[in-house]
UniProtKB/TrEMBL annotation, chains A, B:
This is Bifunctional 3-deoxy-7-phosphoheptulonate synthase/chorismate mutase. Keywords: Transferase. The keyword Transferase applies. Residues 1-92 form the Chorismate mutase domain. It comes from the Bacteria. It comes from Deinococcus taklimakanensis.
Length: 98, 98
């Protein structure tokens, strides 16, 4: 494309990235579910692991290419961590009800 | 792999997905910056566009394959929207200072 992209072109690019993000976020949730089930099977009912979260955040902070500042990357991933923990705990509850 | 993956294997998979998410989130932020600059150049200083956010959320809700519930996908993307808006507004301020 030799022309400057229009706002509509750029929004279409954002929509495409949104869909890729959704796919990745969902794949991550599936892996987290497997980890949750493995922990539960090993008799480790505590899913919250602040040290593991801290390691992930530190790595992401180091790799962050910008333009988002580190604090923003942290906030987004903390939202993902919170959601993942809720999913693991909800799966435990469902397993208890079966 | 024929063996069941260990928790460590699964965590390595999460770390890999984290890095892909970081790349995509950063690429999305770059496109949003271009949109912000294009809007500012057109004399549209208002970056917040709730109708556009609503359309994105609706599409993501429709495409959501799970396991995260729709409300979780919404919360994660709202965090990304909030960060994007802050980035556009911070770029405007920087442009004013130049």
């Amino acid at each position: 494309m030799t022309q400057t992209p229009t706002i509509e072109d750029l929004r279409a690019e954002v929509d495409l990235i949104n869909r890729e993000l959704l796919t990745l976020i969902s794949r991550r949730a599936e892996v987290v579910e497997k980890i949750g089930r493995a922990k539960t099977a090993e008799g480790r009912p505590q899913h919250y692991d602040p040290a593991r979260e801290e390691r992930q955040l530190r790595e992401l902070e180091q790799l962050n290419p910008g333009p988002f500042p580190a604090a923003t990357i942290k906030a987004i991933f903390k939202e993902i961590f919170r959601a993942s923990l809720a999913l693991e705990e909800s799966n435990d509850k469902k397993a208890l009800l079966v």
